[in-house]
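Researcher: Next entry in the queue.
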Amino acid sequence: MKLTTKKLESLILEMMEDGYSREQKRKILALIRKTRTLLIELQVVQGFYPTIINAIYSYDDEQSIKKAIQNSVRVPHVKKAIMDHYNAMKRIAEILDEVNQYLVLLEDLEIQGNLAFIAQGMIYGGLSGPITDGGHKIKLEELSNMVDSGITFLEDVEAVAPGALGEGNLGLEAMRDIVDSFHNNYSYLKDYLERVI
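Model: Structure for this entry, 197 residues:
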């Protein structure tokens, strides 16, 4: 007998404690799977945190940093790397905005028993965030700090070379807020699950 995803889900549902209806269990499992799928999407975001950021901030004084940024946005392949970073930041914020809703909902549902165990394994087991252009795999617990640094870089680019990233509101503060919320929600749910398991 081949164990398909549907059969596995059915077995899991049969093993779970009472307290939720079969349909509620299915919906909670779907919510857990969707959260995991979105977190996996973070791993394939391209262009996040290019090596140019470290190169620019290797200078000691503010004037040298400004000059390095001005020179960087004039070089087509470096400007492309900066734009790829900006687009990666937008994608990360989009993913985490949706994940935030699911993390809050899972904590509010006060799942317990096997559902909590499944959630812990699927959301906290073996996942990481995006990989930087330099090849560093970001832990989800570190993501908030890395995004904050990446946004600070984009703010500096915009201050030194206005319009280099585009016109209008770039949404940098909103991105920062979303990722900060993710950091808190991810930690809160993890703490909750550890308490009930």
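Model: The chain has a mean pLDDT of 91.
Researcher: Noted, moving on.
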